[in-house]
């Protein structure tokens, strides 16, 4: 089983990256949002820095084009495409767990709060979690 996974939420303008260690214990090692033009070099640097084994790619916005570009950096079998549906909504909810609302934002219902920064990195993390849950479910008991 893989020890280090990189989640990649591709986009036209910006991309989310998340690096997760799965063994010996689940740990988020790195998260960031980068401009789309910087995504491939940054991904390559993180891949080397953390000794990643698999890239988890969301399947929605521009995924096909990104996959073709990623195959210039990685072996095709190192890239796994996962269902990205509703991951942005899930990441928006998680945003408020990671970044506790302050000031008047605390008074608003969760559904009315607007994040003050991009959270594509949280989407990338959710993609890794979805992949990992799928792997765990596929293991024979």
**Rg, Å, rounded:** 15 Å
Q: Give the strand order of the largest sheet, numbering strands 1, 2, ... along the chain.
A: 3-2-1-4-5
Query: What is the C-level CATH assignment?
Result: Alpha Beta
Q: Can you identify the CATH superfamily? A: YqgF/RNase H-like domain
User: In percent, how helical is the residue content?
Assistant: 25-40%
Q: How far apart lie the N and C ends? A: 15 Å
Mean pLDDT: 90
Named at the architecture level, the CATH assignment is: 2-Layer Sandwich
Give the helix/strand class: alpha/beta
Explain what this protein looks like in three dimensions.
It contains four helices and five strands, in the order βββαβαβαα. By secondary structure, the chain is an alpha/beta fold. The chain has one domain: YqgF/RNase H-like domain (Nucleotidyltransferase, domain 5, 2-Layer Sandwich). A five-stranded mixed sheet has the order 3-2-1-4-5. β1 and β2 form a beta hairpin. The model has no long low-confidence stretch (mean pLDDT 90).
